[in-house]
Queue: 3 jobs
Job 1
Amino acid sequence: STAALRGRTITLNTGRSEISSAHVTERLTGQPLTELLVASDVRARVERILGEFGAEVVEYDAAAASVSGRSPSLNVNIHCDWLDQPAASGMAAYYWGLPVTGEPRSPIGQRAAILMMKELAARTDMANLGVHARTWDTLKLPGIPSVGIDLGYLSNFHDAHRLADPVFRQTLADSIVIAIQRLYLLEEEDQPTGTLALDDVSRFNPMEDRRRVSGL
C-alpha cells in the first residue's frame, strides 16, 4: 500500500552460537568473534536505521503475534556459518520453498532473499553463494514473509577478518535495510542493485511523516 518503512513491523532474529573463530577477535573490543557477537551487532545496527525511518523492530514471538492479531511485514533471520572445512566461504540467502525445484512457497520471502543477496554481493567483497529454497521452520512463519541470511563463515580466514570489522558490519546493516526498502518500492521507483543509498531511502520516509509516527 505504500513504499514507506514507517508504520511497518519488522522482526529480526539472530543466531546465538558462541563457537569462536580461530582466526581473529573482534577488532575493537578484542572479544572472541562468535555468531552471537556478529549477528547481534548487525541486528542492532539494522534496528537503529529502521527505527530512524519509523519502522518498529521486534523479535518474532508466535504467541504474541497471535494475541495482537498484527502480523509483521517481514521476518529476517541473521546468521553466520561454520564448517570444518576452512576453505568454505561466502554469503547466502534463504526463503521458504522446495529445495529440489526451488519453487517458492512464499513469493515475497523469495523476493526479499533475492534483493538482500544482490545488495550484499554488490556492496561487499564476500563470495555470493546464491539464494536457496529451504523448508526450515524459521522460514515457515504463518502469514509472514521470511528470509534467512548467512553473513559468512567464521571458520574461514577471509570471512572472519571481514566480519570482525565494525565498519564492514555497518555495510552489511546498510545493505539489509536498503534491500528491505526495495522490497516495498513500485517498479518505477526501484533502483539498480548497489546504487540506492540510505539518503535515498529517506525520500520514501519523509521526516515530517516519521515525526507524526513517533509523536514528536
Job 2
Amino acid sequence: LDSLSKLVDRSMIYTRENAAQSMRYNMLETLRQFAGKVVQTRKEDGDLRKKHLKYFLSIVEDAYEEQFEAQSKWLILLTIEQDNLLAALAWSSKYSTSAFIKLIAKLSWYWIIKSQYQTCKENHEKAISLSTQDNEDKARLLYGMGINLFYFGEAVRAAALCEESVKIWRRKKNPIELATTLAYLGYIHQVFHKNNVTGFAYSEEALAIARKIDKPGIINHCLYYYCSSLVHSKQFVQAIPYVEELLISSEKLNQPWGIMIARHLHSDCALGTNDYIETEKRYSLGIRTGVKYGSDWFQFIDMQGVAFALSAQSRWAKCIRLNAASVEKARSIGMNTRGLFEFWDEWIDTYIEGAKEQVGEELAKKYEEEGIAMEFETAVEYALDFEKD
C-alpha cells in the first residue's frame, strides 16, 4: 500500500471511486503500454497473465455460485470488472482452453441479464466447439446457450441443448443445476412447442427439487419460469398470485432479474385482463426497472407494452411512435420484438397494426418516422410521461 500511495502521489497511478463505493486504481494508457512492453521484454507476461486469469476466474466462479442469492452485488462487481474479464477471456482462448470454457460457462447468466446477447452467443459457440467432455462445464455451456438462443428465436435448438444439459445433470446428481435447467426447459416446451403436459411436468419437477433444496434464490428462479409459462399460455387470472409471490420474493432477495420479470409479467396480466390504464402504469414501471438495472431487453419490450396500452386507449399517435422506438432499439442489438412469442405477436397485430389502421397509412408512416428519429433515452422519457399525447 505504501508503494501504491507513492505512485499515486507522483500521478503515475490515479484513483476514482467505483459503483461499489470502493477505491479504484488506474494507470494512464501510455504507462500501461510501456509497462506491457517491459514485461514482455523480461518474458514475465505469461506468468502475470496466468495470475490475472486465476484471480478473475475465481471471481466469476464465486459470482456464479451466488447468482441467485446475491445477484445485485455480483452484477455491480462484474460490470466494474468487465474489461478485466474480456482480457482474461482473450488470453485464455489462446493459452488455456479449460479456463476459457469455464469462464464462458459461468458468465452466461451475467451477459443475459445485461442484454449482451451477441457476446454471449459468439463465446458460447466457440466454447461448445472446444468442449469435448460431457462434464459440468459442458452442461452449463449447453444451458447458457439454450437461454441465449431464445432471444434469437431459435427455440428448437434451445430445447435440444437444454435436454442434453439435463441428461448430464441427472448423471451428475446435481440437484441445484438440475432444477435450474429443468425450469427453463419446461418453459421452452410449454411456450414454444405448445406441449403443456411435458412443459408443466418439467416446471413442477424443477419447483419440487428447488423447494426440497430450500434455497430461496433457486426457488425464485424456478418460480419465474413457471409464472412465464402461465402467462404465455394466457392463464392470466391463474398467474396473478404466482407473479405477485415472485415479485415479493425477488424484492426480498434483491434479485434484479426476478424483479424485472415479475414486473413485466404483472403488466402482461393487466393487459390480458383488459385493465388498460393499469397496464400503462405497470409497463412504465417495467421500463424504469430496466433502466435501473441496465437491461436493454426490458426497456424496449416494456416500451412496446406501453404502446399496446395506449392503443387500447385510442391514443394512436403516441402508440405508434413508441412502438417504432422500441422496434428500432431491438434492431440495434440484433433482435426483433416480433417472432419471439405467439401471444406477443397477437398483441402486436391487435394493438399496433390496429392503431395503424385507425390513423391510415400516411399518418402511421409519419408517426413511425418520428419514433425512429427519437433518441431512445428521449423515447423512455416520453413513455413515462402519462399526460403527454
Job 3
Amino acid sequence: MVQIPSDQIKTKEILDWKGLHLFNFRTSSCSQKLRIYLNLKNIKWTSHSINLATGKNYSEWFLGINPKGLVPVLVDNGHVEIESNDILMYLENKFPENPLTEKADIIQIQSLLKEEDDLHEDIRNIAYRYMFGGLGQKDPKSLKQFENYKSSNQEFDEHKQKEVKFYKSYRAEGITNDAVRNSLNKFCICFDKYESALVSQRNLTGDNLSLVDLAWFIYTYRLYVSGFPFKAMYPKISKWFHGLYSQNEFYKEVNDPILLKVIRFYARMTTNFNGKSIKSLLSA
C-alpha cells in the first residue's frame, strides 16, 4: 500500500483530522470507484472536493498532502493513503463486514487490480479523446506550479515529470489515432478474458461482487459512453455492466453533469463525422 509518512506531509493540519476523509473530484474515475465502495459498505466519511478542472490538485496546499497531485487521497485519523486500489484494500482491512474480497482470493484480486491500474493511461487516452472534448487540458500556470514543486520522494518526482510531459503533449497534439487504437487493443485483451468468465459466473471474479467489479465498472462506463460497441462485441460484459449501472450506488457516482454530457455528445459526433470513432479504430 502507498502510504505518505507523516514526516513527508507538508500540509500539517490534516494530521489532526479525526474520522475518515476523502479528497476526491466528481468526474475523477478513481474517485468514483472509491465513492461506490463507500456507498456499498455504508461507511461514514467526509468529502473534500479537489477541482481537477481548475487545477486545485496542483495547489501548494494539496501537493503538501499528495505530491503526485492526484485524487483520491484518504485521510484516516491523520493516516494518509494514496492510490485508489491501495485505498480499497486498506478500507477492506479496516471494515471487514460485507466483504468485497474473499480471503482465499486476495492475491488474485490484488493481481487483477494491478492489471486494471496498469491501463490507467489507456483509459485516459480514450476519455480525453471522446468524453472531455478538450476539457482535459491543464492550465499552463497550474501545470508549471506542479512542475516546479519539489518533494522529498524521487518516485513522486518521476511521476510528476511523466504527467507534465503528457499534458504538454496533449495540449500540442491531442490524442492520436494510434494511441487510441493501441489502448483499445489492450482493453480488448482483458474483455476477452472477462467475457469468457461471465459464461459461468455472475461477476468478474465469481458470483459475488468484488473490488475487481468496482474497478472495471468505471472503465467500462467510460468506454461505454465513448461509443465502445459492447453489445455487439461483448454481450455478457454489456449485461454485467448494465446490471450494476441500474443500481443507485453505482449510477449516482457516474451520472455526469449536464454540461459534460453535452460536451461528450459533441466530441463523439465530431469524431464520428471525421471517421475516427471507436468502432472505426477497432476495425482498422
